[in-house]
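re: ur question from earlier - yeah i can do the single chain one, its not a big deal. heres the input i used so u can compare w yours
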Amino acid sequence: MKHQLITNLAFTVSVWALLAGAAAADTVGPSGEAATPTSKITVDDSQTATLKSKGLKAALLWHDQSDFVNAVTAGAKDEFARTGIQIVATTSAGFDSAKQASDVETALALKPNIILSLPLDPVASAAAFKKAKDAGVKLVFLSNLPKDYKQPADYAAIVTDDLYQMGKHAADALAASVGKKGKVGYIFHDASYYVTNQRDQAFKDTIKKDYPDMQVVAEAGISDPARAQEIAAAMLLKNPDLAGIYVTWSGPAEGVLSALRAAGNKTTKLVTLDLSEPIALDMVKGGNVTAIVADEAYELGRAMAAVGERAALGADNPPFVVAPALTVTKDTVAEGWQKSLHKDAPASLLAK
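and the output i got, formated as tokens:
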């Protein structure tokens, strides 16, 4: 999954710097907004009846195509179907800001009342979505925010993962796999992006706070996933006795896994974020991977749609909404794929 959103977006846009000193045990938004769980974002029967009478329309203008995006789309579609809102456009910009701007223009011709999207670039997106907000379209953003946009005047809410809990889950899973002791390697995302920064920092904070017999002894930043194997190989050469390694997301984790295999290392445990078939396959076969922490992507889509519905009714929304994290292990692959992506796990992971 996921976050192919994060995997690719982090290298095509520069968003915001992580808030200074953000070591709190709670996820916060790009401007320090407090998080509200997606479970709090609901549309009751009376509101649903009103929505069904309005004949509203929605557009889903995504940044890319992936299992993650498909799951978000499924959640949004099911929620809009429940309230009688017609989806008039579903697009993929292929991580191209110009294409996203064109998608917005095309969608506006269909007169949607609600747009769900992940803005690709803060500056370009601010211009791209201006016509929509000026036309009174209710904008709901996934993870990112156009520059200088203010809630609720310019958009209804940002919806993303419970970032701190994702990092904490990863720390807890790695600790459980190594008996809560030993040396740890830490490969973090070396870019200013509040989503990955908070997830990474939460892992490190949790190890320091909750596991006194574990020490992060090796750290390396990564901005290009293609260098993951090289970075991990150097880390392992200097620290051959690592009990475990944390990797910022599953894309570079594949390179780290390759480095472990190349070194003949079958003992160092690996934990990462976001579902990936190659990473999960190693896990179910009893390899280095001990757990994958994921988000509930389907729930992200449902909540985004519900935010848009509430905004269309004139109801208040909290500015920053987060979906739950879940830990997937070799014993919970089938359930984890369904919970996160609302689809069956790949056949390779279910073979006995």
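The chain has 14 helices and 13 strands. not sure if urs matches, ping me
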